[in-house]
Amino acid sequence: MTRGCCRAVLLMLLLSPLTGIAAPRVITLAPHLAELVAAVGGADHLVGVSRYSDHPPEIRGLPSVGDAFQFNEEQILTLRPTLVLAWGGGTPLSEIQRLRALQLPVEIIEVQRLPEVAAAMRRIGQLLGRAEAGREAAEAFEQRLEALRVRTGRPVAVFYQVSESPLYTLSDAHVASDVIRWCGGRNVFADAPVIAPQVSREAVLAARPELLLYSSPTGERPWRRLEAIPAVAQRQLHHIPADWLTRPGPRLLLGTERVCDHVSAVRSARSVPVDSPPGQAAGQ
Q1: Rounded to a whole number, what is the largest CA-CA distance in the chain?
Q2: Is 187 a residue whose pLDDT tops 80?
Q3: Where is the Fe/B12 periplasmic-binding domain (predicted)?
Q4: Which of 104, 151, 172, 210 is the Cys-Cys partner for 99 at CB 3.0 to 4.6 Å?
């Protein structure tokens, strides 16, 4: 059987009536979308996910339909989804158009700012027929998020290191920058022209961050001797798991809590005289 004929047969099967199957069959095209589906109680509806979808643990054995940018159309058709969730701003438009041309029901979910996580939960809940669960998950997220918000005071200059070699960070186009701002911080590379700019150590030195966050466990190594950076001089270098800041899903709340704790510590240290004994900033 030729490739074209095989695809035609799969498409025919997809469009045939699904008798006796009432539950949604969902495929997600980015890891955070699988997390959002699970957050509204829809993990059992997932039949396929994108590569690197590893949370919550129960989805790890699901078929992978590709990475975040290229997908196996034949496998997707074989899984017979009733809903495909695409990543707004991430899934290439060409891939979305290709899937829609196969008459697959593709919905785009976009999260650019922290409050949009709750909006995504509500939307996915509606799409899965779990509107109440989506609303409850969204409200719980919003309540915890609002409790963390910092609205006053001089912003803390923050550098977020995505990778150390080469040295990459994130601009204001990424939701991680919104997390920093939410906590009363200022992303020192917020104005970069691309979402994930490569920067130099000299540029970081010139930005003089008061807080340096990094995504890999060894991310502080390039900075330990650079005491000219306020964050290094004040020992404000901290690891935050990458998934807590780079995936625009429910676990952004964990990242926000951690970032807010560190920003708060920097603010507290500002009020302590320079010649104070060690530990006074922590209330010791």
Answers
A1: 80
A2: yes
A3: 25-271
A4: 104
CATH fourth-level superfamily of 152-282: Nitrogenase molybdenum iron protein domain (3.40.50.1980)
Task: Give yes or no on whether 3-146 and 152-282 have one common fold.
Answer: yes
CATH fold of 3-146, please? Rossmann fold (3.40.50)
pTM score = 0.86
Rounded Cα distance between 165 and 173, Å, is 22
- For residues 154-173, give the mean pLDDT: 96
- Least confident piece of the model among 18-22, 57-61, 79-83, 212-216: 18-22
